[in-house]
Amino acid sequence: MDDGVAAPLKNRFGSWVGSPFPIAPLFLLASCGGDVTGPIDPGSDPNFTIVAHSDQGFTETNRKVEVFGVPIYAYATVEDVKLLHAANIMAQYLDNNEDGIVDNSTLLSALISNNAALYMWKQERQAGSINAQDLGADESIPAWHTNGHTGRFDAALEEIWHVITHSGFANAYPTALSEEAGTSLANAMDIARGGHFQSIPSPYPGGAWYTYDDQTCDYGCMAGEYIYWAMTSVLGAQENRAGEIQQEWKLNTEAKVRQTDTAVYELLTDPEYVFPTALPDGTYRR
Questions:
Q1: pTM reported for the whole predicted model
Q2: Per-domain residue ranges for the chain?
Q3: Of 43, 58, 73, 250, whose CB is crowded by the most CB atoms within 10 A?
């Protein structure tokens, strides 16, 4: 979650079931811990259909949307509009030119083979309840994209990106993009932090521009947060947030990343990895 200061990577990622594209809705009665029972509304999104499910490991949730085979689950109390917004954000990250085809098939294969998934929750007690990356419904702010990138940040941009990097890029390109020490990504992070630190230094060396200080975040978690800050800054998501995020990340624009963090900029613009070049806004193919 990113409330000005991003949270560490949360749970690792759970099981995957389903086809690469949305399927016909199943109008079944489904319950979520006694919270809500009723038919599943398929929604009105032109590209995605909300369906009921009984997927192992996610039975506390009552419905899902699949994005190129990667499922996004939701507790019954999560609003459909938030679930569909998350699906659109994920689709735009994976099919950044929005031609209906995933930009990087190697990445998609890694996501599916590593059981990538996201689940959305509404009540705090539901957070951390499932073995997958999570996103709070109230942390996802679709209006941020139409408000000039001002106001409360849309955390869907962060949590969905964590799924893609941790289960996808890190496995598809382990030498370059794994979150372990010694990879190209980790080496770039060590430069950004002012040295190689398995734990949080106190204080960080002067001149460091990545100074994340959550003691619960281990080295791999740090790498996941680092590629989130760098990528979203290159895409323009952090331009209006310098004051909010400077405690842990100081390069809030594409120009600052390009000029200062040359190592990560070279990674993020290397055509081999087909990283996104446009910031998702939740309007996939619309």
A1: 0.88
A2: 30-268
A3: 73
